[in-house]
Amino acid sequence: MLARMIDHTLLKPETTPADVAALVDQGVSLGVYSVCISPSLLPVDTKGLKLATVCGFPAGAHQPGVKAAEAAEAVRLGADEIDMVVNLGALKAGQWDLVRDDIKAVREAVPGDTILKVIIESAALSDDEIVRVCRVAEQAGANFVKTSTGFHPAGGATVHAVELMKATVGDRLQVKASGGIRTLADAEAMIAAGATRLGLSATAQILAELG
What we know:
The chain is an alpha/beta fold. About 40% of the residues lie in helices and about 20% in strands. The chain has a single domain (about 1-210), classed as TIM Barrel (Alpha-Beta Barrel). The chain has an eight-stranded parallel β-barrel, surrounded by six helices.
């Protein structure tokens, strides 16, 4: 069921607690897997849905200790899943030890059963960089690799990136596609490419296309 693959997402900076409450109510009515919101809006009653939040968002340019503390506090406030942004500058500089240690700091700061997704900003990367960062995320203990924040000017998810990410991690990690997925055809293409989770803000519209 498509709805159960969706992180129903609201990450606009101006989001209010009332907006989050409405998001949760809509998510419950649509039967989604989780809601994904900014950490400053925790804690929140998700009415049985899983709770995801972001870390080092949206630039990823925070110190590892800051990301780790942010993730730990989010889990303390009820988060089940952490979507962290990779250190994109270190990645582009080829500083792979820094990229790995950054992810590992967050992994070690949260309980083992906390799902960790690593946002790689695939639209800003070469194919070789996508493959390399997926391997590094796996080494650092991630559960998912995720395409995009949805905030980078380079763009969001593409079928090509999802296929490449899936080919790299196989069944060892899962792949989340997010950023610019606005139609049912988009969603189905990402799933066919290998995505097992979708980050959507257009959830209602997409599910309405199912009829």
